[in-house]
Amino acid sequence: MAALFAIAVVVIGLIWAYRFNSALKSTPEAARKIGHRYWATQELRDAYEHTKKNPVDFGKHLPPKLERRYVIVGGSGLVGGDIVLQLLQRGQSPQSIRILDFSPLNRQDMLEKASGCDFVKTNITSVESVEAAFSKPWPSSVAKSPITVFHTAALIRPQERSILLYDRVSGVNRDGAVNVLNAAKKHGADVLIATSSASVSIKPVNFFTWPWQSSPKNYFQICDEKDFFAPIRTHEEFFANYAHSKAEAERAVCAANAPSFRTGCIRPGNAIYGQKTDPVLGTLLNDGEYVSWLPQVIQNYVSSRNVSLAHLDLEAALLSTPINSPPPACSGRPFVVTDKGPPITFWDMAYAAIVLSEKPIKLTHTEPIFIHMVAHIMEFWSLLLARFPFLTTVLGWKETSHPIHILQPATLNVSIHSFVDDSAARKPVAEGGIGYEPCATTLEGFCTQILEFNQEFSGAAGAKNNGGSKIAKVAKEAKGVAA
Ligand SMILES: *[C@@H]1O[C@H](CO)[C@@H](O)[C@H](O)[C@H]1NC(C)=O
Ligand SMILES: *[C@@H]1O[C@H](CO)[C@@H](O)[C@H](O)[C@H]1NC(C)=O
Ligand SMILES: *[C@@H]1O[C@H](CO)[C@@H](O)[C@H](O)[C@H]1NC(C)=O
Predict the structure, then answer these.
(1) DSSP assignment letter at 34
(2) What's the CA-to-centroid distance between 438 and ligand 3, angstroms?
(3) Probe target for ligand 1 pocket from 103, 121, 123, with the most ligand atoms within 8 Å of CB
(4) Which of 220, 314, 413, 470 sits a CA distance of 20 to 30 A from 238?
(5) How much distance in Å is there from the Cα of 306 to the middle of ligand 3?
(6) Can you name the residues that pair with 73 across neighbouring β-strands?
(7) What is the pLDDT, as a whole number, of residue 145?
(8) Nearest Cα to 247, choosing from 310, 300, 194?
(9) Alpha carbons 427 and 417: distance in angstroms, whole number
(10) Which residues are in the 3-beta hydroxysteroid dehydrogenase/isomerase domain (predicted)?
(11) How does the average pLDDT of the chain come out, rounded?
């Protein structure tokens, strides 16, 4: 009898696990409606060749140069760095640009083009450090111009959801933003634009699925700005601590909007790509490795250069009425922005890298249920150490490090089908938008990035002068296998 009962429990358990795994591998009806089509090998190769011959001209959409000074907080990073480069490209002088960052300039493109800009090492969690960076005198040629502040610095830790660990992100993301806001006001800036995140609007997913459910609840979501116009949600209603801290920062920045001090936020949607350090394509190319576990999940991506462009569009829009007169409708609110559609799947990104990267990409598959199990173990470990600090201080136990640390339940909350609706940002300024217009697609953006990566990769291989041909051979084999 007992044996029969045990067998029944095991069988039901296995059926549930199987159903759970299938639910994760599903594409809900609402997401399927967009009619996604996978990129074909030839299509990728053609787009790549086209991008090589006709590089994307990011300059042609930039709003015109303004007689202003610029403070870019987080200016060494992905979005901040692109803002600096686009400001220079549209003709702002290096003397009129000040970069505030904890890390020195390290991007190759910035070392080449932005070394004439002022750089102040800044710890944004420290009021004194921010104050010192803002009070440093400016060159006399620009000292009288009005000031725009772009605040792009943030700590991106999508993996934690426990309030116990909230201060790991809130110090930089919320308090840091408030410090910058206060200093900007005090030092007479009249425009402040902060980078937020489309994930602010993401609601947690209930991954527990009943046998009759084909997909988890909330497995498909649309990212827009509606949540901003309702009271801020409770901690549990954000996908992770990161999103909650970004929402708090966004509210603080938008609440400060006034006729003499215009503010607004840009929510990039969803993952931002564009540099070796980006968490999606860049990391994949750099690691040369991809573990595929949810190849079917559909999401929008956004090029960091489009995100940067949206910041400049918002600046122009905020200045569309004279300072001290009523601010335009686009002020004091966030706008979500993305690349020109359609959204793509996780697999499309991996496949683009496999087909186009000169560095071979190793591909492995795993079942999503396995990833979910690992994620819960990781979180258990991390919370155990947080609850009992002596385990770390006395026994020397450590948290796992990057990249495995990312693998926690909260991260799974964003591994869902999510479309970005940036129709508000695309409206003209007169209708309350910011006139944002992405002119090309994620396919061209990916090709641009892989092209830049390949140029650097073959440059490095050539410089070392060893095994360039061997690498190319391995790459060709990898491509052959994948095609
Ligand atoms: C940044 O400033 C804060 C507040 O003063 C301080 O606690 C922290 O240690 C500083 N961080 C670094 C890396 O210096
Ligand atoms: C998603 O996030 C919420 C809130 O942080 C959490 O309660 C929920 O358990 C998460 N889902 C998973 C699978 O971790
Ligand atoms: C947006 O990014 C894509 C991909 O990098 C690019 O082709 C397009 O020109 C960008 N849009 C604008 C308006 O610059």
Answers:
(1) T
(2) 5
(3) 123
(4) 314
(5) 6
(6) 100, 151
(7) 95
(8) 194
(9) 25
(10) 71-352
(11) 86
The least confident of 21-30, 182-191, 354-363 is: 21-30
Which ligand is located closest to the Cα atom of residue 413?
Answer: 2
Using the mean position of ligand 2's atoms as its centre, give its distance from the Cα of residue 140 in Å: 53
pLDDT for residue 235: 93
**Backbone phi, psi, residue 331, to 5°:** -85, 160
* Centre of ligand 3 from the C-alpha of residue 308, in Å: 10
Q: Is 126 in the pocket of ligand 1 (CB under 6 A)?
A: yes
Residues 168-177 have pLDDT tens digits of 899 999 999 9
For the segment 54-68, what is each residue's pLDDT rounded down to a tens digit? 887 777 788 999 999
Q: Per 3-state DSSP, what percentage of the chain is helix, strand, and coil (rounded to 5)? A: 50, 15, 40
Q: Check whether 452 has a pLDDT greater than 90.
A: no
Q: Are 112 and 61 in contact (CB under 8 A)?
A: no
E-state strands within 274-322: 289-292, 298-299, 301-303
Is residue 125 in contact with ligand 1, taking CB distance under 6 Å?
A: yes
**Nearest CA residue ID for atom 13, ligand 1:** 123
Q: What single string gives the DSSP state of each residue in 73-109?
A: ETTTSHHHHHHHHHHHHTT--GGGEEEEESSPP--HH
Amino acid at 445: G
Residue nearest to atom 12 of ligand 2 (CA): 409
**Residue 239 Cα, ligand 2 centroid: separation in angstroms?**
6
What count of Cα atoms within 13 Å lies in the side-chain half-sphere of residue 33?
A: 7
